[in-house]
Amino acid sequence: MPENTTAGGRAGNLPPETRSFVGRRRELARLDALLDPAARPGRLVTLVGTGGVGKTRLALNAARRASHRYPDGVWFAELSPLRAQGLVGFAVVEALRLADRSTSPVTEVLADWLADKKALIVLDSCEHVLPGCADLVRALLPAAPGLRFLATSREHLGHPCELRLRIDPLPLGDGEGARTGGGPPGDALDLFAQRAAEARAGFVLDEDTAGPAAAVCRRLEGIPLAIELAAARLGELSLGELDERLGERLPSPLDLLAAGLDEGPLRHRTLRTAIGWSHELCAPLERLLWARLSVFTGGFDLAAAENVCSGGPLPAGRIAALLERLVEQSIVLRYRTDPRRFQLLDSVRDYGGDWLRALGEERTLRLRHLDHYRGLARGGCTEWNTGRQLLWCERVITEHANLRTAMDCALSERDAPTALRTAADIGFLWRHCGYLREARHCLDQVLTTDPAPGPDLVRALWARAAVALLQGDLDCAERWAAVCTAAAVEQGDAVAVVGAAYVTGGHLLLRGRLGEALVVLEGADLLPVRDDWLGSAQLQVRLAVCLVHLLSGDFTGARAVAEEVRAESARRGERWAGAFADCFLAQADLAEGDLPAATRNARTAVVGHSLLNSTLGVALTLDVLADAVVATGDGPRATRLLAIGQRIWERLGSAQMQSPDLMSARRAREDLVHEKLGSEAYARAYEEGLAMSYERGIAYAVEDVRDS
């Protein structure tokens, strides 16, 4: 998956600000100093505080302010969706957009890539995976001198170099300045006023509202989430009613302290009470929906909510209106970048999860969640080789956290057929959408349990072998390809047998055994191409044939096959195989001396691959485009393209998929450009290419050479 950029075009994946940020000037100043790469302390800074106190929002603002200091990016790893201890490294790989195709342990992959980088990683919501976070930090800090971590947690990580910054609630103020016009309100009161204006048009702090508003903030201990939930109620309550009801609901801080609660539990209880009060004010069906929505991770859309959460007293037709009510009350948040998607903040989701367990519905809802996302994955595999392919790729990326949660549920239920079917579908999609390591992880778990023969097993075996091919793990690919072929033959599906030829011929191709590969690949029957995952496998067989011809020097044969695949791809509206066909046609054009066609086809391929997050395809095509550009005499541009491609190959984890032919071609290409430019000019242009973000590199690659 490609990296994103922060404001100013810098590398990173920080999410956009969803609401205005209030206060925290002292904390931000402290973090400005601690996150300065030149500062000796601060390689691990942990913001520690109770739930709802605003740790995540503060961390994101501090990270944005520091982004110009980290040329290799500021990266946000959201850990709250994780349900198991062993997944922290996966989350960081995903955050860094490392399309990892190696088979090394995840900490080694991260350490190798980060070794010479100057980067900041934000680990958000560490408290439920503290051992995994501590282990990862312990492994990476010594290996990457330019790396710093900013963590948020309710507890510290326990690392020796950790600097803990306690995040307290917002300063309260007394409302006097707002009442008299003599000065700004306190931060807590300022936050209340801003959120109250969103709930009730025209709300302002004045001599009538400042006092009661300050009283509300005091009752809520200045906890931002509690203040926001309370302010949202001004759409239906007057300010006086809000203050009165909170006074009835919340015990005084003195009472809690007298009961022996220290400051941390006191504020936790205040937040829980405020959330509970919001829960009590909800209508019964709103409460039920809130509880059921807690099974989602990483957001959800209306269709998912209707499918998973309906039932019993909650009909699907009521969910849209109930969801809007929860949004109005700030219990559910709408994504600013995609208003069709929603999410629950961690503390609010945790409260809903507690109620779901109390209702005795947790397992039922988790199984419904599994069924929904298993059906989504099945649909993606069924329509992968059609004009809906790009939409499915976008959906798989958007729903990655929910798919991971569904996969975890399928494995924990110990229902072998369901787990196999789920892993086969999700594994196939993850293989094509950039999540190779997680695809391998889930497929290995189901394939080591002696699964039953059938189409699900063939699909899982094919996906596992295909993952190994892209990771350059050719021994593993050979082993799984043999098992896949045997299973396909046993199933008796002729198209499945054709699909198995791809993984068998593919490992022979990458080993440089081109003649043997061609025998296997051309021996596959040319059957009508299907719409599903097997149709994609059929096209990949033909692409492998094309690549054998290219590496053998048969450019006429390569062109014929590439044009065949491109025509079939265009007829179907699919893009994955079509982009590879464009890349291979560019190579044939180049060999035949048609530089304009080579450049045009390579640029088209880069666009197609980038749309589907096929970083492997982008890297392969940039190598070809560099060849075309250097042939036109533009050595500096070719060098920059090589550098952009090299940065992607580094993220892929295995250079040129460990193919000796592809690696030799890459070295020859670099030597040619270096000789044309000379060492000094080559080094300068190469550094310029390395400095480009992924998006800037793609844009540079597809610019018309005549205009660059």
From TrEMBL:
InterPro entries xref list: AAA_16, P-loop_NTPase, TPR-like_helical_dom_sf
Domain Orc1-like AAA ATPase, first and last residues per copy: 21-121
Signal peptide: none
Protein's name according to its UniProt entry: AAA family ATPase
